[in-house]
Amino acid sequence: MRKKLIFLVLILLCTVHFANSQTSSLKGSVTDSVEKKYPENAVIALLRQTDSVLVKFTRADKDGAFSIADLQQGNYILMITHPYMGDFFDIVTLNSNENKSLGKLYMTPKSKLLAEVLIRTGSPIRIKGDTTIYTADSFKVRAGANVEELLRRLPGIQVDKDGNITAMGERVKKVLVDGEEFFGSDPGIATKNLRADAVKEVEVFDKKSDQAEFTGIDDGVKDKTINLKMKKKEGYFGKVELGGGLKDKYNNAIMLNSFKAKRKLAGYGIMSNTGQTNLDWRDAQNYGSGADNMTSGMTEDGGMYISMEGDADENYYGGAKGIPQNWNGGLHYSDKFGKDQKQSFNSGYKYSKINAPAENNVFSKIFLPDSSWNSNSNSSSFNSNVKHALNLTLDFNIDSANSLKWTTRGNKKNTITSSDYFSQDITENGDSINNSRRNSTNNGNNNAINSTLLWRHKFKKLSRTLSINNDFSWSNSLNDGYLYSLNKFYANGLLNNIDTIDQQNIRNSEAKGINTKIAYTEPLAKDFYLELSHSIAYNSNTTERLTNTKTNNGKYENQVDSLSNSFVFNRLVNTPGLNFRMNKKKYNYSFGASVGFSNFIQKNITDATQTKYKFTNFFPRASYNYKIKPSENIRVNYNGSSNAPSLEQLQPIRVNTDPLNIYNGNPDLKQSFRHSFGIGYNSYNVLKERNIWINLNMNITENAFVQSSNIDNEGKRTYQTVNANGVYDLSFYGDYGFKLKNKLRLGFEPRAGINRNIDFINNIKNITTNKSLGVSMNISKSVQDKFEFNISPRFSWNRSKATVNAAANADFWQLDGWAQAKVFLPKKIEIATDANTQIRQKDPRFPQNNNYTQWNATIIKRFFKENDFELKFGVYDILNQNRGYQRNFNSYSFTESYYTTLKRFWLLTATWNISKNGKPSTGF
User: Fold this and answer.
1) Is residue 853 within 8 Å of 835, Cβ to Cβ?
2) pLDDT in the model for residue 408
3) How far apart are alpha carbons 678 and 621 in whole angstroms?
4) Are residues 131 and 224 in the same domain?
5) Using CA atoms, how far apart are residues 146 and 89, in angstroms rounded to an integer?
6) ∠ CA 446-451-456 to the nearest 5 degrees?
7) What's the count of helices (H) and strands (E) in the chain, helices before strands?
8) How far apart are CA 352 and CA 396, in angstroms?
9) Within 10 Å of residue 538's Cβ, how many Cβ atoms?
10) Of 35, 84, 400, 436, whose CB count within 10 A is highest?
11) Do the beta carbons of residue 729 and residue 755 sit within 8 Å?
């Protein structure tokens, strides 16, 4: 019995020893990023990530090396501190029995961090892993300044004339407030309307995709993001702006915000006819666009997407075309609730009304294989869009292993358009070919909703996850319009034929779809993971076109069968996918593929016919990312993806809303397949404010969708979409910026591109090769409380060569320039001016001089201690030279367009900044 007991004790001791041996270790070295020396005795501490409890610590030796042994698997916070260095933080994940080497870890001397900034409290800049953190109060701005002015002061961040933000050489795509979206993803709402003195810290980081944040497996998808951490969580702030001037110009805005703990409530309203809406294209896309139709297609991994599309009217934001009148408003509400406030709710509503009258004049040269002629047109139009948009997001963390996320986005859009149009085509000898006079009106009603429910589960084994995503989309569109057209056609300069169209056009479409995707991740070995996915997507599109002409009673009740039909287009796609990913400290790579099994059914309800399509597509993908240094990396990627023809391209029906340009569907279209290659490099030095960004991309498309046009002797064009091979494009973009010792910042942006397109003109294959070169330069300097300026010239050269007719070739250069300056005078007076100029090479086909300079100037006087009130007088387009102009060329035409736009005006604007957080005009 005693022998058995001794034997059991020995087994138990061996088991305990074996269990203790299944521990991990960590090693690395610490280096001074500036002097390249080793900070001896730097403290290296490991904290448990879940509760920040200290696990172990050690000190670096004289060579900066350190090691920590006997560690259990799990996630840790690595903290390195030294009296003369900025603190270093990072997240470290240890697997069972892993001996992890972190390599060289760079620390920044505090003397360098403090060299060019004004210190008030705390460290001005901290590096925490891949996040750069700026302490807002360490960078002086004027009282009452907004966040955009604060960002201009931060090393490594630039804001251009349009409010676009660049950080560490990359374009910022999102600005968050306390980690959450604020009025969607429009950066301008936060940066232009939040006060700088309400911000505690500005964090700049590469935001990983939702999937990568959930699984902990880096998928290489990152967006440069700024997060504004606010100071106090209670209070309100905002501003009221009233502006007016002669010629009935006005620009009025109000924005109010109320924060209490995690609750954020905000609202704004804008009424303007100067084109100043504080909304950019991204915001208009997220909130403003209605759903004229819903389209679907395949993603790059073979899955299916369903999207709601707006129309071309979105360009009226900013007053680019026409003289717009804008009424915009929005509400935002978000809060966190539940135990530990792990549940969150985010919502937003936006209203937009835009009325835009416009006039347009177009001059074109048309080139055919055996002839050419001139085409001129002018139009007067009115567009009115009213849009409502709502978004809701609920994040519900059930427990530590399970979460639910529900997102719903919907919008409603009503449009009214009317247009009077006249065009004429004339031979080189001055003989008439045709002329057309058209009057059209249209009323549209569009509704759309998209709802997503995502369930995510984490297993006990690290990085083993399961997620199920369900996406439902629905939209409908009803358009009712009238067209009257009088068309005259000539032969040898003599009237030959008159064609009159008087018809009603009704288009009703509905789209609905559901997409379910299951994704599973499994760690196969150290830092090596498997990703399995399968998606099933079903989409149904129904469209009905009715064309009616007048009967004897004067009503539009006579249906034109050749211009009317009804179609149903159903699509079912099954897509299994497999992907492998390796994640190391210095590099990561992935490779895999998806296979799409697609079944399409096209039903022609009008003539009771049915067409079926089946496609099997392979979607390979691969990527590699290498981190040379913490702020320097190189990346290479490849994606193969297919694109199915749309219902409009397939539908075999003539559309004659433009009698001189008639589109025919092509039911014989094949899917296209695109190969995409990319390589990029970027490097940034936060102390020297030096950045390098290089990007090279190439796309090759098989069975590309191209146009086939037939133009007869009367100038009528009928066209349809066909497939062709030999289409590709290659582009290069670079950005190099640095700061000199005299605080002068320089930037250079070279770019180049070449693309090869194919189309068919009167059954003759035409190959068009476009080449472009360009370089931009930026020179800027800012001296606190004295002056700032920015000069940004840009030169570009374009060449287009077509095989159909040498006369269609184009070769011209263009010089664009923008400059801005501000001078800060005593008595809180500020004088600012800016100018934008364009100089274009004249083209022998259009000898007009289209150069212009738009010069603006303002003077601002601020009042009270915290600049709570200000008066601004501004004159815009002082020289009255602003003009709407576009130059376009394609395979067989060269076009110049002129359109109405805002001209010289002045505004007197009064702005009241509201702020309250217990102390008047401080913070909130």
Assistant:
1) yes
2) 95
3) 12
4) yes
5) 30
6) 165
7) 7, 50
8) 31
9) 17
10) 436
11) yes
pLDDT of residue 493: 86
Locus of tokens 């004049």: 361
Rg of the chain on CA atoms, in Å: 31
- Looking up residue 38, the CATH number of its domain turns out to be 2.60.40.10
* Separation of CA 18 from chain center: 54
d(C-alpha 51, C-alpha 49), whole Å: 6
Spatial contact of 331 and 908, defined as CB atoms under 8 Å apart: no
For residue 166, the domain's CATH number is: 2.170.130
- Give me the amino acid identity at 548: N
The candidate with the shortest Cα–Cα distance to 669, out of 694, 654, 651, 683, is 651
Does one domain contain both 106 and 127?
no
Of the candidates 698, 696, 695, 767, the one whose C-alpha atom is nearest the C-alpha of residue 728 is 698
In which residue ranges of the chain is pLDDT below 70?
Answer: 1-22, 34-36, 50-53, 110-123, 127, 129, 161, 169, 183-186, 212, 216-221, 232-233, 276-321, 651-654, 686-687, 846-849, 917-924
Residue 319 lies inside a defined structural domain of this protein: no
- Asked if 98 and 177 sit in the same domain, the reply is no
CA angle (178 as vertex; 177, 182 as ends), nearest 5: 30
Q: What are the Cα distances from residue 523, in Å, to 265, 462, 588, 852? A: 42, 8, 14, 61
Contact 75, 95 (CB under 8 A): no
From residue 766, how far is each of 401, 664, 798, 812 by CA, in Å?
Answer: 59, 20, 19, 21
Domain, as residue range, for 96: 24-110
DSSP-derived secondary structure for 586-620: SEEEEEEEEEEEEEEEEEETTTTEEEEEEEEEEEE
Q: The tokens 């004229």 sit on which residue?
A: 292
Same domain, 30 and 124: no
Among 875, 878, 870, 866, smallest CA distance to 916 is for 866
Last residue of a domain, one of 231, 260, 287: 231
d(Cα 685, Cα 337) in Å, to the nearest integer? Answer: 40
Residue-level pLDDT at 847: 64
- How many domains are there within the chain? 2
Domain contains 880 = no
Q: Is 808 helix (H, G, I), strand (E, B) or coil?
A: helix
User: Is residue 62 domain-shared with residue 141, that is, in the same domain?
Assistant: no
Assess whether 93 and 153 both reside in one domain: no
Of 180, 208, 231, the residue at which a domain comes to its end is 231
Residues in the chain: 924
Same domain, 153 and 192: yes
Identify the residue whose tokens are 């416009």.
358
103 with 55, same domain? yes
Whole-number Cα distances in Å, 441 to 353, 720, 749: 19, 25, 45
Contact by Cβ (8 Å): 913, 384? no
Question: Is 521:463 a contact under the CB 8 Å cutoff?
Answer: yes
Angle at 805 between CA 804 and CA 809, to 5 degrees: 110
The Cα-based distances of 559 to 40, 542, 563 in angstroms read: 88, 20, 8
Q: Does residue 240 lie within any of the structural domains?
A: no
659 contacts 487 by C-beta, under 8 angstroms: yes
Q: Does 645 fall in a domain?
A: no
Is 797 strand, coil or helix?
strand
Residue type (1 letter), 37: K
φ, ψ (nearest 5 deg) of residue 14:
-65, -40
Q: What is the pLDDT of residue 615?
A: 79
Provide the phi-psi class of 743: left if phi over 0, else alpha when psi is between -120 and 50, else beta: left
pLDDT on residue 90: 81
Please report where in the chains the tokens 């980690």 appear, as a residue.
Answer: 179
Quickly tell me which residue has 């005078």 as its tokens.
Answer: 825
Query: Which residues, at least 6 apart from 12, have a Cβ–Cβ distance to it below 8 Å?
Result: none
List the beta bridge partners of residue 198.
Answer: none
Tell me, what amino acid is at 407?
A: T
Q: Are residues 415 and 442 in contact, defined by beta-carbon separation less than 8 angstroms?
A: yes
Nearest to 274 by CA among 238, 239, 316: 316
State whether residue 285 is helix, strand or coil: helix
Strands (E), 492-560: 494-525, 528-550, 556-559
- Two tokens, residue 447: 């509704």
